[in-house]
Design brief:
Blueprint lengths: L4 H16 L3 E2 L5 E3 H8 L9 E4 L3 E5 L4 H11 L4 E10 L11 E10 L4 H16 L4 E7 H9 L5 H9 L4 H11 L7 H8 L16 H16 L5 H12 L1 E3 H14 L4 H16 L8 E3 L13 E7 L9 E5 L1 H7 L7 E6 L1 H8 L2
Parallel strand pairs: 1-5, 7-9
Antiparallel strand pairs: 2-4, 3-4, 5-6, 6-12, 7-10, 8-9, 10-11, 11-12
Subunit structure: Homodimer.
GO molecular function: glycosyltransferase activity; histidine-tRNA ligase activity
Pfam family, one: tRNA-synt_His
Amino acid sequence: MPNSPETRTEARRLRDLFAAMGAQVVKADVLQSADTLLDLYGEDIRARAYLTSDPLRGEMVLRPDFTVPVVQMHMESQADPARYTYSGKVFRKQETDESRANEYVQVGFEVFDGRDPARADAEVFASIADALGSLPVQAATGDIGLLKAAVEGLQTTDARKSALVRHIWRPRRFRNLLNRYAGKLPPPATRVALLGNPDPFADAGPEIGLRSRAEVEARIDALRADAAAPHISGEELGLIDAILRLHETTPNVLVELGDIAVDMPSIQAAVDRMSARTDALAARGVDVNGLSFEGSYGRTSLEYYDGFVFGFTAVDRPDMPPIATGGRYDALTAQLGRGRAVPAVGGVIRPDLVLEVAQC
């Protein structure tokens, strides 16, 4: 059913709804340059996307989503503000769950507008909710920007903070790093042996590989500096854990975050943005008193979300993937815009899942 005629009809209906809201209908090539995705996500993308080689265009990838090509299109046009909608197939590897489709249709709504980010967040969330209509779905929200602000406020080295931010979207790796920096996990035995050797190159043998000796020496120096850095305090570790454990209605979370911000001032700006977004959502008719917020929500998505994140799931189908997801991705526009950033937020719906839930 992911690619059935009924799914395509539903996709057109959803796309036309967003077009009626003022969004420009756009298309994106199915084959995208792999270099862009590799620059954004590193080699990890190979485990999630279908790559192929073209004799003229080099390494290419079957479109894993629409956001990256739409951002590229927008940054080239330099239109501001702008709204876009699209529909078409995306392709994702499913290495651990054969029941999940690796090819399906996606319909999206993207807003590039920096005049009032809170209002833009609310517009996209409410528009997706309105498009889903009376389907039996429940919404969950989160804020990657809140966790990033907490990490950036830690009393530790810039290198450690950069590593933690880089692994926010890999929860297990993030936790292991956090525990190691707090002294709760010992460093790897191989690293201890390396740093305990006064001359690591003495028995290293001939130089092979792509890295020069200077690069290897710089890496060893960085490891020595990290080993000498003081541990993250138990108090700061507890504050990070308190944010990750948040799972309550949005107003209650705001109260808890206000208390956390007293001891971790670095998150105050993110809390203020969340408060403004909550007001904007309420102004759009969203029942914020019943809207769930999770401190860890959105941490297994593609890494371009850096602020508000949300998703809609079927109430009685925990086995089903999210019907709709979305979030803010300001940093992605800076990366693809060669330093020029445009605040942006968007969301996508899977029309095949809409039909499936409607028939339940």
